[in-house]
Automatic annotation (TrEMBL):
This is DUF2062 domain-containing protein. It comes from Crotalaria pallida (Smooth rattlebox). Keywords: Membrane, Transmembrane, Transmembrane helix. The chain crosses the membrane at residues 28-58, 125-151.
Length: 178
């Protein structure tokens, strides 16, 4: 299976399936932004758990398949943002600069740098925590028009109207004398 087939099977097909179900563009944009924001959490291996907990807490406010797909898509980005989150956290606290050298890696692997490693993880988490509202907000703003276009183009279910079809119509109850 080539890269194109893999991308089709893992990204394109699930996204088209989501779009064809007729979800609201704003909910999809929020869910994708949330999935990516949680997906770049700087501790590898816990993002699926974070997404699951978030989906359980938010319930119908987010679209679970979109959160999970965005989380999956964010994995390569997660790895590339660990160091920027680490440096951002160090800048916020004014803490010591964790050296990213082969010597430091050797200390980590032999267990000689446990305090420094824990401090660097805490700095990376702080950097992510400080940046995540901005990441979420920026992604949401960028993704709303994208999902409006995609939902309009691929949805097979009409969107539910936000307003009544006839704004001046009323519902009257018919009372019968028995």
């Amino acid at each position: 299976m080539g890269m194109r087939d893999w991308f089709q099977k893992k990204i394109t097909d699930p996204l088209l399936s989501i779009l064809r179900r007729g979800a609201e563009p704003k909910q999809l944009a929020f869910s994708a932004a949330l999935g990516i924001t949680l997906g770049v959490f700087p501790v590898c291996g816990v993002t699926v758990f974070l997404c699951g907990v978030t989906i359980a807490l938010l319930g119908s406010f987010c679209h679970a398949p979109t959160v999970m797909l965005a989380n999956f898509i964010a994995t390569p980005i997660e790895l590339s943002l660990v160091v920027p989150f680490l440096r951002f956290g160090e800048a916020i606290t004014g803490g010591p600069h964790f050296p990213l050298t082969s010597d430091a890696l050797q200390k980590v692997l032999t267990g000689q740098a446990s305090r420094e490693v824990l401090l660097s993880v805490a700095h990376a988490l702080l950097g992510w925590l400080a940046a995540s509202p901005f990441i979420l907000g920026a992604l949401y703003i960028v993704l709303i028009p994208c999902f409006k276009i995609l939902v309009h183009k691929f949805s097979s279910v009409p969107l539910s109207p936000k307003k009544p079809l006839h704004p001046h119509s009323e519902v009257r109850l018919k009372v019968r004398d028995v």
